[in-house]
Amino acid sequence: MSSAKDVTDASFEAEVLKSEKPIMVDFWAEWCGPCRAVSPILDKIAEENAEKLSIVKLNVDDNPATAEKYGITSIPAMYVFQNGEVVKRVIGAKPKPALEADLAEFLA
Fold first, then answer.
1. Could you give the number of structural domains in the chain?
2. Is residue 108 in a domain?
3. β partners of residue 103
4. Residue 91 domain-assigned (yes or no)
5. pLDDT tens digits along 44-89
6. Active site residue: 24, 35, 38, 93, which one?
7. Which of 7, 23, 24, 32 is catalytic?
8. Most buried of 3, 13, 17, 63 (most Cβ within 10 A)?
9. Which domain holds residue 57?
């Protein structure tokens, strides 16, 4: 299982929108194969860049209000939030180098 912290509809504002540093939310579901494939890659990126970027997970089946609010229609969807705003969207599972390239501005 992922080492990323789980957030919920109830904790989303406090954990994500009020975060001091950039935070990536991995919108996922238990039944989603690509979500399970990308999870260990995100864990590794989080571990290697803990001081620059936080990564949390939100199960879209268990937390439909937040998923709907951000228009999540395909998963995995990884949104980076900074100062309470979505500043980057990454849709679909990708290999680690591609995800790191997408996140370069936050990992520099």
1. 1
2. no
3. none
4. yes
5. 999 999 999 999 999 999 999 999 999 999 999 999 999 999 999 9
6. 35
7. 32
8. 63
9. 5-100
DSSP class per residue in 35-99: HHHHHHHHHHHHHHTTTT-EEEEEETTT-HHHHHHTT--SSSEEEEEETTEEEEEEES---HHHH
Q: Is 8 a catalytic residue?
A: no
The radius of gyration of the chain's CA atoms, rounded to the nearest angstrom, is 12
**Distance set, CA 23 to CA 14, 15, 31, 33 (Å):** 12, 9, 24, 23
Q: Name the pTM for this structure.
A: 0.95
Report how far residue 90's alpha carbon sits from residue 35's, in angstroms, rounded to the nearest whole number: 13
Domain of 20, CATH number, reads 3.40.30.10
**CA–CA separation, 23 vs 45, rounded Å?**
12
Flag whether 23 is in a domain: yes
- Asked about 35 being catalytic, the answer comes back as yes
- Candidates 96, 105, 58, 108; CA nearest to 78 is 58
